[in-house]
Amino acid sequence: MADLRKRVYSMLGRNNNLKGSDIEKHFVQEGFKRRAIYDIIKLYEMGIPPEDLPRSGRPTSFSRKNLKRLRSATANRIGVSQRKLGKTFGVAQSTIHYNLKKIGLKYYKRQKAPKYKYHADNEYIFWSDLTSSHYANETTKWLIQHKIKFVPKQVNPPNIPKTRPIEDFWSILADKVYEAGWETKTELQLKRRIYQKIKQTDMRVVQHMMTTIRTKLRKIEDKGPFSLV
User: What domain of life does the native source organism fall in (predicted)?
Assistant: First the structure.
């Protein structure tokens, strides 16, 4: 199309007496569309140069390599700014939005949490599992000293895995942290590794693990802990 524009401009420049219909007939015989010829003539009359000049704004093209980088930067992350991503990848925000839809990632805009009133003034109680360290003298003394109410060991229900899906999550997270024989050398390194793996975890899976907790706890309250066995 660029070569066609140059040829039309050249013909018009050499002979100003040529009519648009004459130029149109000449190029239609070569297989070009009539509408394209008249559009180029109109550009010539408007004084627009035959070659495209650099335009303002960021480009809209997006390479396959950048598509993989975009997936890595946005998967399972809430509130990633599309404008900032546009600056990072050197493209327009609309390009980021289009490619997020292309790879099937739904964008969740970060929203400020409302001021919670429900439960705001209620008292809370610390409910741990039956790990011995949670009921050690040092631990219970600290809880009492800081006036933190906790469930006494003698009334704490047995550890029923079906009512503690969070334990499954810790197991899954631990596998991800130490996969491929990874080892930590410092506490800070371990923290960063844990945060990294949490970000890579699909939160929908975690939410699904917690959906039936209320029903199961109610069943235990009504029929006892062995009702889930």
Answer: Eukaryota
**Residue 126 bridge partners (DSSP):** 150
Six token digits for residue 16: 């100003």
Q: Which of 53, 44, 45 is nearest to 6 (CA)?
A: 44
**Angle of helix 82-89 relative to helix 93-102, nearest 10 degrees?**
100
> Which residue type, as a one-letter code, is found at position 223?
K
Global model pTM greater than 0.85: no
DSSP per position, 83-111: HHHHHHHTS-HHHHHHHHHHTTPPP----
DSSP state letter for 157 = P
Tokens of 37: 């010829």
Torsion of CA 154, 155, 160, 162, to 10 degrees: -160
- Which helix (H) or strand (E) is 190 found in, with range? helix 187-200
CA angle 49-50-54, nearest 5°?
Answer: 70
